[in-house]
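User: Sequence in, structure out. Go.
Assistant: Echoing your sequence, followed by the structure tokens.
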Amino acid sequence: MLHIQVQVNATSITTKALSTSCSTMKSLCFGPFLVASAPVCSKAFAGHLTRKCFQKQLHFHSRCVVFSSYSCSATVSVAAELEEKQTFDGEKATLLIRELRKSFDSGKTKSYEWRVSQLGAVARMLEEKEKEITEALYQDLSKPELEAFISEISQAKSSCSEALQELKHWMKPEKVNTSITTFPSSAEIVSEPLGVVLVISTWNFPFLLSMDPVIGAISAGNAVVLKPSEIAPATSSLLANLIEKYLDNSSIRVVEGAIPETTALLEQKWDKILYTGSARVGRIVMAAAAKHLTPVVLELGGKCPAVVDSDVNLQVTARRIIAGKWACNSGQACISVDYIITRKEFAPTLINVLKEELEQFFGKDPIESKDMSRIVSPNQFARLVKLMDEGKVSDKIVLGGQRDEEKLKIAPTVILNVPEDAMVMQEEIFGPILPIITLVVGIPLFEFLCKNHLTCVLSTSFVFHILCYFTN
């Protein structure tokens, strides 16, 4: 526990000055100073506040109060206590899952009434806190308001609405035929909840990809723990506060944190684990689950090409590629176009149309556009810059390439004829970079080999064949 005492001494001070000084000290310890020091945390005494940060702010505020011009003396003392953030370790994880399992074993989460009440609470939360959700998404990713609503909030509302509408049908036993050997018996299939479920979410759609599986877990009658991504801290903090406020905390909990907290959670025995993220972490999750024979759902990344032939409506095609690649979270989406395959002689025309339409979407300077999200973190920004600046790639940029490290923004970038062994073709790009691979006319079949790429089914490499009867 950190105890801070502020003492202000002066040779002289008037009644008015004393009042001002007290007000200043109160705001220092209990007011906007603490909130400003940790804007992504909704609690006043934020865990992100460090001793060093507090001392710097304290020094600044004390220098702002001038006492030397007064002729009497006074003393002002203010004390503030900051609770140190407790570490979530294996012991706490064990206790947490024990509490949730006790709640599940009581049978309350299995009832239709409990499920409907929790889904209704989620629906109410989405309606009442839409503004706060939008603001958190803007803090984490600079998502424009319209994009935040369309890609996250509205889809979460849709999932919740569907669950409420279909829940009785989903819970209804299914009649099945019996064999002659059991005549005259009857049989039915009854869907039972699995138990205590762990949801490990990701950062690119931090609200939707957290709430969507939670809605599913509640609908199925499970107790659930949500671990939001620490890379989207504003949304993570908001989820923790909203779920604590709106939902049944004896059965639904949020654990914030990074690798240590996730590791502590994965050491426990769960009844199901749902993970969204990279293939590298997916392996870790699956290995941890295998120790307890826990079933897992892994939503992992992958290469996602678009094949563009010359007989398409080029303007419509370009707009759809832009909407899916750059207008959707600046390419930070698993379903965005990862690269384009097209005819060699058609590539210049395609690039020109992409350039024209990009200007319609984001203006002449897309980095300054308010309609384009930023890169989520400095680490992701550095990774994408490294892909663009590789020797065999940097001289093949035909559109874009500008970047602003301070704003964490990269302009829509098109790269023509990237070598197969370039880094940008060896991993999911997950950003605003779009390679174009060209083919020669008349090849009836081509094979594109993407080495060292992990697909959603966890094979170490894949080859896909596309029949291309390109003719003049």
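User: And one key feature?
Assistant: The chain is about 40% helix and 20% strand.
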